[in-house]
Amino acid sequence: MAGTTPGTPRVLRAMNDRAALDLLVAEGPLTRTRISELTGLSKPTASQVLARLEEAGLVRSTGNQSGRPGPKAVLYEIDPAAAHVAALSVGPTGIDAVVADITGTVVGSRRVEADAVAEDVRHRTAQLVAEAVDGALEGTGLGHDDLAAVVVGTPGAIDPRTGQLRYAPHLPGWHSRTLLADLAEVVGRPVVIENDVNLAALAEQHEGAAQDHDHFVLAWLDEGVGAAIVLGGVLLRGATGGAGEIGYMPLPGAPLARGGEADWAGPDAGGGFQSQVSCPAVRDLAGGRPLAEALADEAVRDQVAARLATGLAAVVAVIDPELVVLSGRVAQAGGEPLRERVEAEMSGLALPRPLLRVSDVDGDPILTGALRTALTQARDSVFDTI
Description:
Layout (H helix, E strand, L loop, with lengths): L8 H19 L2 E2 H8 L3 H13 L3 E6 L9 E5 L5 E8 L2 E8 L4 E8 L5 H4 L2 H13 L9 E8 L2 E2 L6 E2 L12 H9 L4 E4 H12 L8 E6 L3 E7 L2 E3 L37 H4 L1 H7 L5 H6 L1 H22 L3 E5 L1 H18 L8 E4 L6 H18 L4
Parallel strand pairs: 4-7, 7-10, 11-14, 14-15
Antiparallel strand pairs: 1-3, 2-3, 4-5, 5-6, 8-9, 11-12, 12-13
Helix pairs in contact: 1-3, 2-3, 5-6, 7-13, 11-12
């Protein structure tokens, strides 16, 4: 709404439009009367809003409300065709992509298998992303021009000063200085790259274990280890986008993860918290057994819990969150028994006593967070009727 004057009829109309649209996103189909009640708008104003939004292709009627005496009231909903978005999750073994309409309903998906450290992959990064997006679009009748937002979740983080990916040495193809431009060229739209653990935290914040908390830490325990920090409901990113890279955190008994700026795009030096509680670390501790089997062994579970508690206690002492959410494959494999053991270990290590929960987001939380982020961006653009 740049260049407009607050309080003018045009701005007020746009504010009413957005209030109605946000309400329909949150509540689903509603009658004009119900929209009037929930927004505080008069019925005539609500009617005008709905007429404008219907004409703009943002809202459509979807039948009548039944089960009440008298004339049946018309129900209105967000028009799914108003816009579409793409969300992608990048990992060491491939790329998952989904395309969804503006309501969040997924209309297409595709997985592209790719070894992140293969020599040919590092030169085909942008093409692999395009292949994933094209695959998700296939059969939907949509093209790149129909995408209002594209969000990619990847390990590491884009440094706002340089535009380069940092803290992801195991994704060599993603360290190009022209990465964002390359992705925008092949996708045909601007692309946003977001840290995967931050996206998992957003998913947890809106539809998972952290829904009722504004101050929490998500600990991601997978092939890599990291954290996302949310304070006052806002994601903490840090000066270089690297807030929460606790995998590199030094701990007693763990080798140090040494390395300078140049090493972020080179081989991972190992060491730190990641060398203690990642998937490979847990499997090594259990003699190579699968995660679920390893963490079913009480002795292994106790040792992993002790390591986890030591690292999390350091984070808790600095951040003082209300809640710590355990996520990733180690957390899912360990489940409630691991959570209980970590909680017991932490009781003697950290003065603050946050709640401790295991993630309960269905499916891939990184992809879920990427989709939510893409939808937020698209709605901010498409729903702005000024």
